[in-house]
Design brief:
single chain, mainly alpha, 84% helix, 0% strand
């Protein structure tokens, strides 16, 4: 499980670094594609993703317990990103083309989140007391 989580965290890091870097460098064209008036919010998201990528890379090399906790927390972050994307699309925050871009960008986030949950579930014993013991160690 820890080995799979490390791979998923490194993959997540690489995707966030490349995507965040591209969004930061090309904030104005990305904002235009999403039909947003200002690029500052797009640039902020890009910079956040670059910082998040660095944190993920560090966490991927941490102790097994830290990797497990990071897997849990980042799976929750992935789910939050997906919910926020759906909410923004539903609220009409973007043009139709922007909706498509955002939906496509959410696919790897969802896949990584599902992968983390599956890796974490593989360590569960299906005994609630034993599972709590695993989590608290």
């Amino acid at each position: 499980m820890i080995g799979r989580l490390r791979v998923l965290l490194r993959t997540d890091s690489a995707i966030c670094l490349v995507g965040g870097g591209a969004v930061t460098l090309f904030a104005r064209p990305v904002a235009d594609a999403l039909d947003l008036d200002r690029a500052v919010g797009v640039r902020f998201v890009g910079l956040f993703l670059v910082g998040y990528a660095i944190v993920l890379a560090v966490l991927a090399r941490a102790t097994p317990r830290t990797v497990e906790v990071a897997g849990r927390l980042t799976a929750l972050a992935d789910a939050s990103w997906l919910v926020a994307t759906i909410a923004l699309i539903g609220a009409g925050a973007f043009s139709f083309g922007g909706d498509v871009i955002m939906a496509l960008a959410a696919i790897p986030v969802a896949a990584l989140g599902i992968g983390k949950v599956l890796a974490l579930r593989s360590s569960m014993t299906h005994d609630p007391i034993a599972d709590l013991t695993i989590v608290s160690q």
